[in-house]
What does this fold into?
Amino acid sequence: MNRPEILRWLREGRPSDLKTLWSRADAARRKNVGDAVHLRGLVEISNHCVRSCAYCGINRAHRGITRYRMTAHEVLACARQAVGLGYGTVVLQAGEDPGLRRAAVADLVRRIKKDTGLAVTLSLGERDDGDLVAWKQAGADRYLLRFETSNPDLYARIHPSLPGRPSDRFALLRRLRALGYEVGSGVMIGIPGQTYESLADDIETFARLDLDMIGVGPYLPHPATPLGRGGLPLLPAREQVPNTELMTYKVVALARLVAPESNIPATTALATLNRTHGRELGLSRGANVVMPNLTPPRYRVLYEIYPGKACVQETATQCGFCLKERIHRLGRHVGAGPGSRRRSASALPA
It folds into this structure.
């Protein structure tokens, strides 16, 4: 798919024409990753964060939330629950929390692998090389680090760097690949100041990075943040990408077409915008992964990166059964095992 075609689809608004995009994406999904929907059990292990990201409700400047850090015993209990619910992967997610020490995370990964046999995905932000090496050696399989936007000026406006630590997420993604992780990344859609040209750059970047997983979701700022209070102006309508449900489906579909073998989730953010059918529409327009939440409800309500997040009050069991029913109603089936990216022979590195 060339750039003019990507831009055309991003700007397309006619439902009759968009049916063609949905059909192409669904056909590419079926051909390259099949009808299985893989379940990744999400555990939000800490809401501490040293970053001051201008949209995120757990950023360090937000004083109005109670901070927590789950114990190893609690995280292991969630991982065992994932096994009981038939999931193949557990995802350990947190703010960028130095309190999650290298040795402690490595030990946790080893214990999960030994006790459950699950694939372990880490989403712990920008960490030192020594941390990434140790966690891979401990058995971590995947690492998720969204680059959010490929526009460096826009990125700098919403992601202030730490003093003395300039942020280079693309370098980190390359390093993660070199260490042997399966690598996931993605973007926000509709950031104030994000143009259609910039979003097309993002979509082309998915293919260039050869990502194993691509996660995209709408820009949903927390109201207690600078961007939630209107800290960045929107562009004129003809240039500004909207942070809508429809635009998110377009990017999911285009991600599938430019990176046909990647795992692509129908995200919680989509379910937040459309609680009735958001995940189902994502799955029918290119996605093949969902991430049911295993976080204990008493912590889940505190991991409020944006307001009104779907499924906050459900137990892990309720969330799992609900998603399985939704998948079956689509005529799809729940995938078995870890659901690693399937690379065709032509896609394997020489």
Summary: The first strand starts at residue 36 and ends at 46. The chain has 13 helices and eight strands.
